[in-house]
Design a protein that fits this description.
Helix content is 86%, strand content 0%. With 401 residues, it is mainly alpha-helical. It has two domains: 182 residues, Growth Hormone, Chain: A (Up-down Bundle); 197 residues, MFS general substrate transporter like domains (Growth Hormone, Chain: A, Up-down Bundle), CATH 1.20.1250.20. It starts with a helix and ends with a helix.
Length: 401
């Protein structure tokens, strides 16, 4: 296959990766850069602005369920086009907000539409169906491109805010969403798939301790990560650094996800999947602690490296843990886990904002993030201990009498 042939072959995966950059950059990362300038310009409280973000996360959970069903039944195009169009219109409407209530509604709709129609649960599913013969390579292309969202959008949005103000910056983001995600929404066509029947006993199977313990760990970690990523730029800025520097460091934290993902195979070979995930929880807690107990660029860079590598690793590790715990019910329980973690993410982001309003700083918020990571670690240790006990019983049962 020549150069042009390879370019044509990987065109859809590349377009889906660019759409992923736009989706996460415009909604997931941009809001964390916006929150301080919005508060300073309008007087709207950090807690209320965090609630706007959380409302979008909650709506995205519902949109993800509907979008996933539509993806299976009608393919990727209607799901992605809806995300692009509703998201862009919501950003323009939010830029014209004259009161906090209108802004909350507009951002909730924007966040729900973009996250529900353009996040990984859509682009990854479309990619795996388009490249069934080279699935692992295609997912690598998609996720490596997606990891560029933070390093691109954090400094870009900070520059927009300083050059144009938040209203014009939101309009510019609407244009970028259409320009970057529109081509994939219009030209990539993941076909519908046959819908399998419900498995016997599936309805109550979530009560299996192996299932709910892993979901509990995922919810603790999701609440911590959501609060951390939403407030990372403001927390770094609180160290005494300017907005542009804080946004650039937040982008660097996202860039560190790439080496984190490249460490997956050697780290799991050394520590195992559970051990590697426990290390990630510890690194995120340590990074948050550095922003509390240290000062200046050294603290910021420790956070960038520790949290960046850990968050980059956690995504594929979560997939491996889910495959182990959920078995043949992976699709069903992954959807349930996404809905549960969206609630946890919304709650984490909102409570973090309330803590900032109450204390006037980020110490309580960052301490709460560390506590949530400890809860995730405790749940996963519980899961690992139960798995080892079950394996020991199987081995004993298999021995001759």
């Amino acid at each position: 296959m020549g150069v042009l042939g390879r370019a044509r072959y990987w065109r859809d995966a590349t377009l889906l990766g660019i759409a992923t950059i736009a989706a996460y950059g415009v909604v997931f990362y941009a809001f964390g850069v916006f929150i301080d300038p919005l508060h300073e310009d309008t007087g709207w409280s950090t807690g209320t602005l965090s609630f706007a973000y959380s409302a979008g996360v909650l709506l995205s959970g519902a949109a993800a369920v509907f979008g996933g069903r539509t993806l299976d039944r009608r393919g990727s195009r209607p799901v992605m086009l809806t995300g692009v169009l509703v998201g862009a219109l919501g950003l323009v409407a939010a830029s014209e907000a004259r009161n906090i209530a209108w802004f909350v509604v507009c951002w909730a709709v924007t966040g729900g539409a973009v996250a529900g129609g353009l996040y990984y649960h859509v682009t990854m599913a479309a990619t795996t169906r388009l490249y069934s013969d080279r699935r692992a390579a295609a997912i690598s292309v998609l996720t490596l491109l997606g990891a560029l969202a933070s390093p691109i959008f954090n400094p870009l949005v900070a520059w927009m805010l300083e050059a144009w103000g938040w209203r014009d910056a939101l309009k510019a983001l609407a244009g970028l969403l259409v320009a970057l995600a529109g081509p994939a929404a219009l030209t990539v066509r993941s076909l519908p798939v046959p819908i399998p029947p419900r498995m016997p006993g599936e309805r109550g199977a979530w009560r299996d301790p192996m299932v709910w313990r892993l979901m509990l760990a995922a919810c603790f970690a999701a609440g911590a990560s959501s609060a951390l990523i939403l407030h990372q730029v403001s927390a770094i800025r609180a160290l005494g650094l300017p907005l542009a520097t804080a946004a650039a460091l937040g982008g660097a934290r996202g860039l560190m996800q790439i080496p984190g993902r490249l460490m997956l195979t050697p780290l799991t070979s050394w520590l195992g999947v559970h051990g590697a995930q426990l290390l990630c929880y510890a690194l995120v807690a340590a990074g948050a602690g550095a922003l509390v107990f240290a000062h200046g660029l050294m603290a910021a860079w420790f956070f960038v490296v520790a949290a960046g590598i850990a968050i980059g690793l956690s995504s594929p590790l979560g997939g491996l843990l889910s495959a182990e715990a959920y078995g043949p019910r992976l699709g069903t329980f992954s959807g349930m886990q996404t809905a549960a973690t969206s609630v946890a993410s919304a709650g984490g982001a909102w409570l973090a904002g309330l803590a900032v309003d109450r204390t006037g700083g980020y110490g309580l918020t960052l301490a709460g993030i560390a506590i949530l990571e400890a809860g995730a670690a405790a749940s996963l240790l519980w899961q690992r201990r139960a798995l080892r006990a079950a394996q020991a019983i199987e081995v004993t049962a298999g021995e001759p009498a």
